[in-house]
Amino acid sequence: MSYCVSSDTKDLGKFSTTLGYSQLMVAAAGKPALEALFDDGWTEDVDDCVKELREVADAGDENVSDTANGLADLIVAETFIMIHNGVGEEETDKPMAKALGAAIVVKASYASDLQKGNAGQDHVQELAKVIREFLHSAGKQVAAKVREYGAGLKKAASPVSPDDDVETLLSKILPIDWSALPAKTQAILKKIAQESGAKALAQVHITDQDIFSDVNDAAAEWAYERAAEMVGMKWVDGELVTNPDAKWAIDETTRNMIRDIVTEAFEGPMTIQELASSIEDAGAFSEVRAMLIARTESAKAAVSGQIDGWKKSGVVAKVGWQTGADHDENSDCNCSDNRDDSPYDLSDVPEYPDHPNDNCDLYPVLAGEEGSGEEADEE
Ligand SMILES: [Zn+2]
């Protein structure tokens, strides 16, 4: 049985009702062992925690009672519990597992933490810097080509056939040559994937060095491929070539953004000079976009490492998908469906993140524990 517990806000995952858990935290006021557990995310005071949970269950209403007994049962049964409580992951890793005697206790949110800025920010910043510098210079180059094109026109802003001229201009200013970027991003993506893989192994208590080194190799291979795919390319015999099947490729988005700006320029009163400036300043080449890309790619790298770690651990059967505490159920994305359809086979986990700034989490379901996810979902 896999359970997700959260002590930071309303998010209770699959443990019990949200209401029950937040009420439990209120009801636990004055119980020292439980207060410490909720504050710290872990405790060494297992016996007292169970004792106090039973007391709270006896005194509380149905929600509180179910939740308190459920948590106490989990602790007693040494069931797999995932604590996702908003404190640093180092603090919630082994001490909690040891304290509760649980099979696993973790905060499995390295990927979402990368996106939320709670972990691995040195890597994200490093990646953002590389991407930012590249985009900045690409923007300047495209703008320069626009000016060059404009110099050869007599009536730059009043084309006879807008469609033709949009295409003509685009063909002169594109494509951007992305081939210098993979060499720079690859090493950073590799570090993230490897760190995440190591965390995933530690999380399921694997210490075998051979497995670690397998996971490291897989992470390096993934980073090599992804650094190319990310810019719409792939490696063939050590050479970067165009990859029409690239997923989540930033070259395509960039192209579309430029196309929109150019099209708009030809529809309205805009000179070529103004167009050049507006391309240079466009969101496509902005610092904000560089950061967004860096976060998304970091999360991808983290999840890739994580899943490889779980795969090679030999003890993880499935992967659960949990939506973030503040995820909007009505938002136009696949997160809720992914959660409802989870847990997944290791080879079948949906693309993560589902969208930029996705704050979902993946968690491991151990072999022998799968199949009980449905009944655990009491919401
Ligand atoms: Zn979503």
Describe this entry's structure for a reader.
This protein has 379 residues and is mostly helical. It folds into two domains: 3-107 and 361-376, no CATH class; 121-292, no CATH class. Helix content is 58%, strand content 8%. The protein has helices spanning 18-27, 32-40, 46-59, 62-77, 89-92, 94-100, 110-116, 121-151, 162-173, 181-203, 209-229, 250-267, 272-280, 287-313, 335-341, 373-376; strands at 3-5, 81-83, 233-236, 239-242, 316-322, 344-345, 361-366. The chain has a three-stranded antiparallel β-sheet. A two-stranded parallel sheet has the order 1-2. Strand 3 and strand 4 form a beta hairpin. The longest helix is centred in the middle third of the chain and has 31 residues, at 121-151. It is elongated and about 85 Å long. The two termini are 16 Å apart. The model is unreliable at 1-19, 78-108 and 371-379 (pLDDT under 50). Bound molecules: zinc ion (ZN). Zinc ion (ZN) is lined by residues 327, 331, 333, 335, 354-355, 358.
What's the number of domains?
Answer: 2
Gap between N and C termini, in Å? Answer: 16 Å
**What's the story with the biggest beta sheet?**
3 strands, antiparallel
Q: Mean of residue pLDDT? A: 78
Characterize the overall form. Answer: elongated
User: From N to C, what is the helix and strand string?
Assistant: EHHHHEHHHHHHHEEHHHEHEEH
Number of strands: 7
* Helix content estimate: 55-70%
Separate helix tally: 16
Strand ordering within the main sheet = 6-5-7
- Outline the low-pLDDT stretches: 1-19, 78-108, 371-379
Unique bound compounds: zinc ion
Helix/sheet category: mainly alpha
Strand content: 5-15%
> Roughly how many Å is the radius of gyration?
25 Å
